[in-house]
Design a protein that fits this description.
single chain; alpha/beta; Rossmann fold; GMP Synthetase, Chain A, domain 3; 9-stranded mixed sheet; 5-stranded parallel sheet; 16 helices; 18 strands; globular; binds xanthosine-5'-monophosphate
Amino acid sequence: MERQIAVIDFGSQYTQLIVRRIRELGYFSKLYQPTELRETGNPAAVILSGGPRSVTDEDAPDIDFEYLKSLGVPVLGVCYGMQLLNVKHGGEVIPSDRSEYGPSQLIPEGECPLFVGLSASSQIWMSHSDTCGNLGETTTVVAKNQHGVPVALDWGNRFYGIQFHPEVSHSHEGNTLLKNFIELADDVPRFEIASFKDHLVAQIRETVNGRKVVCGVSGGVDSTVLAVLLNEADIEMRAIFVDNGLLRKNEAKEVQEQFDELGVEIEVIDAGDLFLGRLAGIDDPEEKRAIIGNTFLDVFWDAVGEEIQLLAQGTLYPDVIESATSGSMASTIKTHHNRVPRVVALQAEGRVIEPLDELFKDEVRALGEVLKIPKRLLYRHPFPGPGLAVRVPGEVTPHKLAITREADAVFMRELRDGGWYDKIWQAYAALIPVKTVGVKGDVRSYEFALSLRAVTSEDAMTAEPAEMDWKFLKATANAILNEVDGVNRVLYDVSTKPPASIEWE
Ligand code: XMP
């Protein structure tokens, strides 16, 4: 394991962000439960996170303080973590007169190394209801807020506490503070994705130990990086790609070519007829999703057969952290997908490997770059597992799919040519299953309408319609109306999420 900054999770909604920030600063970091302190191994520093509980609760989460001290490393308590450390150092915690939520000012005092390079006064973000009362004897107040209330404490031996959340962007100089804290640690290795790749490859070889590995590939970032990584480890493997008939134009062919170029052999299973057959006559969105999910499992496991020795999955770190703050729809779905009963049973037998489970999405992309996977592939928009079926509301028919597929291809071409593709989170064309009247070549037409959707987003939890220029939209609509049969009307979706979702179903 990489020598790391261990973050102890007391349950704050921001905890995962602390890990993110540290990784962004170039150091390895992982989350641990308070009871897992010993499992942190030989951490370079420890951060105790915030949390929703009160330290004064009888069953409040606690930490093995003697063990923590015995590590001899810098420790930073954030919010709940600070209050806990204050009690451990002989101080007390009392409910404050009122909860403090929102911006405040940080005014450092003295020469505390945490605040090197910070402004004399900068905005910090508060979210707490308890506050430190009496302080222990060895405690020094190293910063106050604009009302003179202590917001940062130094207990000596590199133990510090801060009442605010440096990990949220509303704490304007929070990153500098975290960097200063890490610099107090001795010999912290930088987290380099290239050497992490070597570590992963070695780990895969050791775990696989001559067994045969099966993995599913979708053409998406995570499963592609996984398959290339397994290939790099030079183990015996099968990579299975299920064509569910709900893919984008030429997608199956492109995925095949992409893996050929990457030197990874894949097995393509053309199951389009089976999927479309089972979807015939079904118009309920949930039922459609269930059919697609179950059919995928039938086809995949059928191909895998009985002799499976090890299953590799592209589960990422946010999928693993159950208390994920940014538990995005995509990661929640993937969590469910990666934890179906058969996988859980295999897991209990130690037959599932998830080599990417310590990485965030951007780190998987960086790993992909180290593995020489083309950027075009690594920075693709997300595409939902149920494919175009969620973009054809109601019953899915080959005719409606064909229209959606063609229109989507034109939209993507225009987005790439117009320089828009990389500026947005996701874009697609959805069929509106309503026929409207138009005029085509002097003749009355009665054809479907289409909706174009392009959104910006951080994590798919919320989304804004992309503000595309009018000329571009008009040209794109024209291209679709000219090139795609079966459509005579194009609309641009300007709904935010919430209340709309990104997909139509
Ligand atoms: P919604 O429509 O819920 O979508 O706003 C949020 C993000 O999740 C993707 N999505 C899915 N991804 N399987 C997936 O792998 C699915 O069933 C699924 N449904 C939605 C969607 O494309 C968007 O990025």
